[in-house]
Amino acid sequence: MENNSNLHEFSRTMSQVKLPKWDDLPDFPIYCDQMLQIMTEKIAFIHNGDEKHITKSMVNNYVKWGMMPKPVKKKYEKIHVVYIIVITILKQILPITKIKDGIQLQIALLGNEKAAYDSFCEAFEESMQRIFLPVPESDGSYILESREIQYEKLAVSTITSALANQWLTEKIIETKLAAYHQRQRKGAEHGRK
Predict the structure, then answer these.
(1) Closest CA relative to residue 133, chosen from 144, 141, 124, 122
(2) What is the mean pLDDT of the segment spanning 125-154?
(3) Structural domain total, the chain
(4) Residue 14 and residue 35: Cα distance in Å, rounded?
(5) Which of 3, 86, 107, 161 has the fewest beta carbons closer than 10 A?
(6) Which residues pair with 76 in a beta bridge?
């Protein structure tokens, strides 16, 4: 029986990831550097090695492409932080054009940015718990329970589930590959004795 403690610990940590809700974000204008600092803190759970998740040039491009509102006098509001959080998370799995369409769809379905964003946060956290929490510490069954999804939340629920599944798959491959290489090294060392 293989011990999956690294995978289990990662899964336990990921199942507890929380995004800041609309009312938890700053209610005052901030500069881009401050927004990037907030982003670094709020999405630290995304692991891409040394790759930066968001840069000033990315923010400028998102504004230029019409994915988010323009800043006012080089200052960013809560709405900008919200857009950057959603775009940064979803670009892990969707092309930018689909993210733009998805954001517009979610706002249209829920009526405004606040409701759309808070709904995204809820779906994201639910998906993280649902996908990561059941990962066993040792070999055994992984039981994924079904859930009922309201139609207006179908797109956001499926994309957040897909993202959580992608991250879990990447970690499983990383963990299993490391265990395989460790067994290979032990076998080689044992063969030399």
Answers:
(1) 144
(2) 76
(3) 1
(4) 23
(5) 3
(6) 30
| pLDDT tens track for 38-60 | 888 888 777 655 567 788 999 99
CB 109 within 8 A of CB 152: yes
Do 162 and 96 touch, CB atoms closer than 8 A? no
**DSSP secondary structure string, 14-80?**
HHT--PPPGGGS-SS-B-HHHHHHHHHHHTTT---TT--S--HHHHHHHHHTTSSPPPBTTBB-HHH
Residue type, 32: C
Q: Which of 32, 54, 50, 30 is nearest to 42 (CA)?
A: 54
In the three-class reduction of DSSP (H, G, I as helix; E, B as strand; rest coil), residue 27 is classed as: coil
The tens digit of pLDDT for each residue in 5-21 reads 778 788 888 888 899 99
Q: At what angle do helices 5-15 and 154-192 cross, to 10 degrees?
A: 160
Task: Express as a percent the part of the chain with pLDDT over 70.
Answer: 87
Residue 30 has phi, psi (to 5 degrees) of: -135, 160
pLDDT at 114 over 80: yes
d(CA 168, CA 95): 20
Largest pairwise CA distance in the chain:
70
pTM: 0.82
Q: pLDDT by residue (tens digit) across 67-88?
A: 999 999 999 999 999 999 999 9
Enclosing domain of residue 125: 5-192
